[in-house]
Amino acid sequence: MMLTPLIHRGRATYAFFERNWNLSKRYWAWEIVWLLYNIVNALSVTFIGAAAEQITGAKVKFDTNSLLLVLVIGTSVWSYLSVTFDGVTDIINMERWEGTIEYTFMAPISRFTHMVGSCLYAVAHGLLFTLIQLLVIAAFFHIDLSHANYLTALFLLLLGSISFIGFGIGAAILPLLYTEKGMQMSFIVKAVLLLVSGVYYPISVLPGWMQPLARISPATYVLEGLREAMMHGQPLWSPEIWSCTWPLILTGLISIPASVYAFSLAERYAKRTGKLKRNG
């Protein structure tokens, strides 16, 4: 008897996962557009690294492989995190696009179940996009990964996903409350995270007033930890990885409960003021 509610919740969670998969199949052309955009963007950035000696006119040969690794890790991690972030914020955007937001939000299903199903699909979607992107990059560049610790890399990527999902749920409040401009606001949040998180450069080159923002972003710790794992083979228990792990755990413990609570308040406000009726 105790298992019945859990089975019902598990089926409902999978239903939201499957619905998002069906939406991806319906808009397959857009999926191809975003996948190609991510791949071309990653290749363009990596080609800059390959041409660094020619661009700078450096007389002394420097370690091109390390530069390529920094850029490939940056573009790949950012592609994964941004696809995941978009998938979470689309909890609202796709409902408005499909005209189903009223039905979904008034249905007798908990919002937490709705979010878990959508977030799981966002993680799977992001992993698939990133895997395809890495395969294409590997066909263009020969990168030495003989020192990589893949177990540490996978652990950090999944741990960072939890923290980033918390930020995504928080950003999803914007399109819920601001029907006309909320989606644009969530894109601005993502752009700021891209700027301050050290995707293509160490955060030490940022102006002093921007560096505290970098320390708030979970992407900063994912990128730093992944570079230690992939370039220097650091194991999970090393001090370098732990210095990135505990901030991610702390960020996840704070951001997810806070975002879910804030979202529940925003949902009640949207229902009370009739904002769910508007489709933008």
Structure description:
By secondary structure, the chain is an all-alpha fold. The protein contains eleven helices and no strands. The chain has helices spanning 3-26, 28-50, 52-56, 64-98, 101-106, 111-140, 150-177, 182-196, 211-216, 218-232, 239-273. Helix 2 packs across helix 6 (111-140), helix 4 runs antiparallel to helix 8 (182-196) and helix 7 packs antiparallel against helix 8 (182-196). The model has no long low-confidence stretch (mean pLDDT 85).
Note the topology.
Layout: H1 3-26, H2 28-50, H3 52-56, H4 64-98, H5 101-106, H6 111-140, H7 150-177, H8 182-196, H9 211-216, H10 218-232, H11 239-273
Can you tag this structure with a few keywords?
280 residues, mainly alpha, 11 helices
Biggest sheet: strands, sense, closure?
none
Rg to the nearest angstrom? 20 Å
User: How large is the share of residues in beta strands?
Assistant: under 5%
Percent helix: over 70%
Spell out the helices and strands N to C: HHHHHHHHHHH
General form: globular
Question: What does the average pLDDT come to?
Answer: 85
- Oligomer, anyone? single chain
**Alpha-beta classification:** mainly alpha
Low-confidence stretches: none
